[in-house]
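TL;DR need structure tokens for one chain.
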Amino acid sequence: WHPLARDLYRALDYPLWRESGHNAVKQIGEMNPDRLRVAASDPGFLELYDSVLAAFDADMAARETWFQRSYPNALSGPVAYFSMEFAIHHSLPIYAGGLGVLAGDFCKEASDLGLPMVGLGFMYPQGYFRQRISEDGWQEEIYQQLNYSEVPAQPIDGIGRPKPVTQVKLGDRTVFIGAWEVRVGRNPLYLLDTDIEENSPPDRDLCARLYIADPDLRLQQEIVLGIGGVRALQALGVQPAIWHANEGHPAFMMVERARQEVASGLSFEEAIEKVRRSTVFTTHTPVPAGHDVFPVQLIDKHLGSYFEGELAPLGIKREQFLAMGRQGGTQDEAFNMTVLALRMAGRSNAVSELHRLVSRRMWRVLWPELPEAQIPIVHITNGIHIPTWIAPEIDQLLNKYLGQNWVERQDDQSMWNTIHDIPDEELWAVCLTMKRKLMHNILERAQERWSEGGVAPQHVLAIGALLDHDVLTVGFVRRFAQYKRPALVFYDIDRLKRIVKDRWRPVQIIFAGKSHPADFESKRLLREAYALATDRDFQGRIAFVEDYDLHLAHYLAHGMDVWLNVPRRLQEACGTSGMKASLNGVPHLSVPDGWWHEGYNGANGWVIGDERPFPSSTEEDTADAEALYRLLEEEIVPLYYERDRNNVPHGWVRVVKEAIRSCAPLFSARRMVKEYTEKLYLPSAGNLPPR
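>> reply
TL;DR here they are.
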């Protein structure tokens, strides 16, 4: 995420850098040896190479980081950060969406701040699916086997492939677990892998894919992640001071640690209390259906050895074990991973101010004796890793007007006031450059699909071939799910067509996002959006861009004019894509939910409707669609097209500047990781009073 390092690979072979998708490992593997020899004798390239290596060595050896200056010796070991997915780079496709992107940004910022941390997740050999849209609009999922020679990971205790570092019992069988190491700056990320020779074929495939719909396989994955993850870290000699579960998926990590404390001589109650003191849990899901819940029969099948027989390692009976994951305590109730995590973590947090209120209401049954306002769930609003998500063009502009060290001061709100000193003409020119890059990328993708053959012309048009960089462009870019309401913009088709087709002030809308393979209702919504993209009456101004991933996300977050977000109220925990867009001068247009409840200030974007609850979803849709259309017609479109004689929209640029100024420092991963450290980690370690 360092510009100078990216410059090195661009200078080495720019066409190959682009073709590899900015994958340095793949680029070097495919380099022509003659090109390397030429570079090795080029004084200019060698000077750049030496400067990159010197900067890297200095960064790795740094002792004057924020954490070391502020809290030297405050932690006896690293923070162990467990997550089902990590989005570090698109060359490592072990992520599905926002949870993984948040985890990846967290790891990067921990490195930048010098916070000692070790990540723990999975190396999914088939990762998450690649998306293709068929000519009739249905999402097709394509799983590709990972080419390990092209990923920035090293096997542990193995050559080419990892050897077992630990094992877990799943029912009556033993599953062996290997691990890979990815260096995320100063800190390691360990990725567990069951695709090793010692396992049976079914167990080798156990962790092949992310977010398997089958609850039996999903439970087994979470046992491997939680229990196997604890054992893997111990086998690698890692002794964490703090254990952090990112969502409920890794909650068995807490159970395994309690088992080990019981084995050392503590009672079950003493073990639980000791585990709580050093455990942090973050919940990201504001709706009950989004939490992992498993039938009791599966718990018996795979975890019975934890509570059955005379040698039961936890020293408790089956009903006591099951009660730890039951919300209401009834014997026929399923086992809820979030409930388990909330009961066993000493400190729990939501990921926005509104999400804290929703979470306290949702889980107050676990604390019946407390008023809702005292439920022990705090909030730390998510943030984004600015060096990862800043566009190179915006970065250069900030270097010029904020100073070369602006990244080091990124969470200093006063520094960002200088944004208003940037000449409107200069900032607007940068916005147009980023937009042209986006349109060029979309056109290249359409050309590639056409060149493959067997593709109808209307499909090429539907995926963006007719988009125009001079037209106001609205982006709906996020996971396709019902609660995100991707169809809201089509609530009144005739009115939308009038907006889109206006002769003098046209609008175009770009959709991108994946539906979960098992979510057929969301797939139907995706098909509806695609069908409208093929409607000639929209004149090619509706597009659906396939295969949304981290690489495409950068182009989209940099090059849109407006970032649209319309989830049902109180059903989005936070959302971070709009933060990335705002950072790059793409104003947010959203209902007042998630982070926008905290971020909107009246001048940095637009808010759809208000925060009042609606009696029904139908009334909510009607009111929000009307508010959306009215904002487009009366405020957004006129402001965008109101230009001076040099074709600069000064009113629009004021909103762009305010979006950057107000959102960048408040919603940075730097602010977020500092808050986790000071509000949760250090108090858990006994070195700061809780805040």
